[in-house]
């Protein structure tokens, strides 16, 4: 017989989105409801594909609920699965560890949450499957949980559920660390992992070890397609496993090289095809993988980085915010499908700075002074504090900009911004 299941992880249901008030025109409702709508899409997929089980490998929730609405919403969706005889198996991770979720709702008969004291097994003899798992008891689990997992059930397709960082990932905390070799040694057939938010097939077979990634990207660092893994078993072996894309909004980082682009009209001609390609799914890591369940209605949230050598560097220095406004204006033509989360201007001047610094005039003197200050952090701080004088007495709401609170990197960035403004004014007509 054929047995299908969905493997999902890191849903972070009702994850708070902080700082939206800093973004004028932000699509607040779509952003705040994204994790719920992604869960609805997951349940829709389970029903549509007639799977027998849904496995969730940790971080179903993002922490303790503010009230019962988060839990009630999850129960509502699980009841949809109960009506189709689809069972649910869950391990808790660092964000929804047993010690973190203080509010509780009555258990559901078709939803099994593995305990944290020891590993447990649910044997499904009619399906020829056994599912093993162990939850986090606290947010920071630093020991390997594998020694507490039961041995495989003979004659079954054995699935392990585990929330783990394996041997480590620079973007995630090192929780429940273990190794691929230890997973292999358990004798299980499939390891359904969670915690790493980017899809990764650690091992293709014997056993198959998969991170599905998180179900829905939550901020600009979680770019690209998100979803779950669809797995089909027949006669005790995997005959198919593939990612299914379910995110209802997608985050992108779009780098635009403006080399040779000198005016806003040329900038618009550069931006438009880049936006069209992004919306068509032709750009961004991993966009070609998996079945995409919601491409037509998806909202795309984009962080745009303008880079390269361009005379627009001087235009931006003379009118700060000019390029961001131009990018946002072009995005408005995409009929609400695209929102610009941020525009970062990392342009360089097309002028030959070395030649300019060697000149025997005011411009050369300014650039040589910038070089001197950049080479001596203490001299930079002393010079800046003296130059600011009474201007350092900022109001309380701007306290973070007071000189004594700025670090070396901030001082250097401010000095380079000041240099850009000088070049924009004094070097506007230079052709060196």
TrEMBL record:
CDD domains: MPP_Mre11_N
Superkingdom to which the source organism belongs: Bacteria
The entry's keywords: Hydrolase
Gene Ontology molecular function terms on file: hydrolase activity
Annotated SUPFAM superfamilies: Metallo-dependent phosphatases
Signal sequence, start to end: none
Boundaries of every Calcineurin-like phosphoesterase domain copy: 4-198
Entries under Pfam families matching the protein: Metallophos (PF00149)
Name this polypeptide is given: Putative metallophosphoesterase
Taxonomic source organism: Sphaerotilus natans subsp. natans DSM 6575
């Amino acid at each position: 017989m054929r047995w299908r299941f969905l493997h999902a992880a890191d849903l972070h249901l009702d994850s708070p989105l902080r700082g939206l008030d800093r973004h004028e025109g932000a699509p607040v409702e779509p952003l705040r409801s994204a994790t719920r709508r992604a869960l609805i899409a997951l349940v829709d997929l389970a029903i549509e594909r007639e799977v027998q089980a849904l496995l969730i490998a940790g971080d179903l929730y993002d922490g303790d609920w503010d009230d019962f609405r988060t839990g009630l919403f999850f129960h509502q969706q699980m009841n949809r699965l109960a009506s189709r005889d689809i069972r649910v198996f869950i391990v808790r991770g660092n964000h929804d560890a047993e010690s973190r979720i203080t509010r509780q709702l009555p258990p559901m008969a078709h939803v099994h949450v593995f305990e944290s004291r020891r590993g447990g097994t649910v044997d499904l003899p009619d399906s020829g499957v056994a599912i093993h798992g162990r939850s986090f008891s606290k947010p920071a689990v630093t020991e390997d949980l594998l020694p507490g997992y039961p041995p495989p059930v003979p004659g079954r397709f054995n699935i392990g559920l585990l929330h783990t960082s394996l041997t480590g990932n620079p973007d995630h905390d090192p929780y429940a660390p273990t190794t691929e070799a230890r997973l292999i040694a358990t004798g299980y057939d499939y390891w359904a992992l969670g915690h790493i938010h980017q899809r990764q097939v650690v091992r293709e077979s014997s056993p198959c070890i998969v991170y599905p990634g998180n179900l829905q990207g939550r901020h600009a660092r979680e770019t690209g397609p998100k979803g779950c893994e669809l797995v089909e078993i027949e006669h005790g072996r995997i005959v198919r496993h593939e990612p299914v894309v379910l995110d209802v909004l997608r985050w992108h980082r779009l780098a635009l090289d403006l080399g040779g682009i000198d005016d806003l009209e040329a900038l618009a001609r550069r931006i438009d095809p880049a936006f069209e390609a992004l919306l068509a799914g032709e750009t961004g890591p991993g966009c070609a993988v998996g079945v995409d369940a919601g491409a037509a209605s998806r909202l795309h949230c984009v962080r745009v980085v303008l880079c390269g050598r361009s005379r627009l560097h001087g235009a931006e220095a003379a009118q700060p915010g000019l390029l961001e406004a131009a990018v946002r204006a072009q995005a408005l033509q995409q009929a609400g499908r695209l929102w610009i989360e941020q525009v970062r201007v990392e342009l360089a001047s097309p002028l030959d700075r070395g030649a300019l610094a060697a000149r025997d005039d005011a411009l050369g003197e300014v650039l040589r002074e910038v070089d001197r200050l950049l080479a001596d952090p203490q001299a930079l701080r002393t010079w800046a504090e003296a130059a600011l004088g009474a201007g350092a007495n900022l109001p309380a709401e701007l306290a973070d900009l007071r000189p004594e609170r700025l670090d070396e990197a901030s001082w250097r960035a401010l000095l380079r911004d000041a240099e850009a403004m000088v070049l924009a004014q004094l070097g506007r007509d230079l052709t060196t």
